[in-house]
Amino acid sequence: MVIQALAFYLFAALAVASGVMVISARNPVHSVLFLILAFFNAAGLFVLIGAEFLAMILVVVYVGAVAVLFLFVVMMLDINFAELREGFLQYLPIGALIGLILAAELILIFGTWIVAPDVGQALTAPILPPDQVTNTHALGRIIYTDYIYLFQASGLILLIAMIGAIVLTLRHRPGVRRQKIADQVSRRPEDVIEVRDVTTGSGV
Amino acid sequence: MVEFWWSYAWPTLWIVIQILFIVVPLLIVVAYLTYAERKVIGFMQLRMGPNVVGPFGLLQPFADALKLMTKELIIPTGANRVVFLIAPMLTFVLAMIGWAVIPVADGWVLSDINVGILYLFAISSLGVYGIIMAGWASNSKYPFLGALRSAAQMVSYEVSIGFVIITVLLAVGSLNLSDIVLAQQDVWFFIPLFPMFIVFVISALAETNRAPFDLPEAEAELVTGYNVEYSAMAFALFFLGEYANMVMMSGMTVILFLGGWLPPLDIAILNWVPGIVWFALKVSAMLFVFLWVRATLPRYRYDQLMRLGWKVFLPASLLWVVVTAGAIVVFDWYPGIVN
Questions:
Q1: Nearest CA of chain B to the CA of A68: how many Å?
Q2: How far, CA to CA in Å, does B44 sit from each of A37, A136, B41, B246, B247?
Q3: SS3 B17
Q4: What is the pTM of this model?
Q5: Which residues pair with B108 in a beta bridge?
Q6: Of B36, B105, B22, B102, whose CA–CA distance to B287 is shortest?
């Protein structure tokens, strides 16, 4: 237990510290790198509570894909962060309000667990204890069996959003020459090459 | 004091010993992989390869290591010092930590976690950070171009690797690497899932930035790309990381498709050979394929590389996921583990 507690405080402290650095680092690329560190520590916290599947998915999806795109964009765009930060005090109240609402929600949820510990049993899909079922199986059963229609619906929404983004950004420019792979592959030497015997001095 | 020793100090020490038992042989393998590459490509091009340092040139890797260690580490003035130095360390560390979950023989694994294959996938998808950080921190145009190419390439091929892994998982019913190997006792997965095996091997070449997909370092256009500005040990760490990644991807291929530590036929005389020997033989065969491909094929053009990843491999692997899942449902081939 001591080691678990030590690991928890290590991950939690690093996550909070890197979260602070994300918004206070002067260099935007450093911000993204600290964001990645924060993701990692969150994954560590997931492992500590036994949610190994979520931990790995967090690393694969957020660190392996989303943060790469962030980093890509931040490196490519010439963002002047000093300019962006000018309105800091102006936006502070709204930011603080959102933060407070999130904190209140978390307190409500975890407060309920402490005040009425039995509330976990009243869930519609009770979670089996981790020694009976691995959390990959448990998640699979809940998402793909119990809530399959909701899952499919959220998938459809994402699909529509993706199609929408493509439709909005796609433009057909005239006069663009495209590579036609099929034509290139189906080209045969006899169609395009002609072999001739040339007598010396006369040319073709 | 005695209690402290048995409950904390000894387990920690034991883990450290196990880690050394994995990392030291791995580093020797990496050192000799560089030698093997030069020898194999040498013979394929009718040359001798390194043959001066030691018998048959066997001490060449150590000579190279000594040379790199004694050289000066140069940090360019415009470079971002911290990120510049973290990048090679990150590449090297990421190439090493994947081995924590790879079972080299029955039960010979440092950490037999339930989500082993996801862990490997996560680790291999992080490899891009070492390169992208190196390219950015060097503050120089060729490294940056190399880093951008590499980031796009690795993200593209990860998608099809993910689908290949899903196909294998459908056939196994578990994310644990030992379970994946044990599920291949009857038939190795490269036979029923042959198209996915091909997709995986080619994607592994792209993921490790090896020829014919070595565009991030294309020496003819980018003067070796992301690591131009690196010298001495920082360069050596990139180099070691790249080769250790090759070994890791080969290990992954062997576990997913070639039956891990299992012998080719389940007969007594082959079962007497220890599992780790089979594993090592299969990994060596895969590594030979890596070198063979490098000696044989010319480099891909960048748009062709992207086309192959997104327009060929992605639809093909997606289709195969559907076919595999359909076959499992129709013929009632649910893998054993259901709870």
A1: 7
A2: 45, 47, 5, 20, 21
A3: helix
A4: 0.83
A5: B105
A6: B36
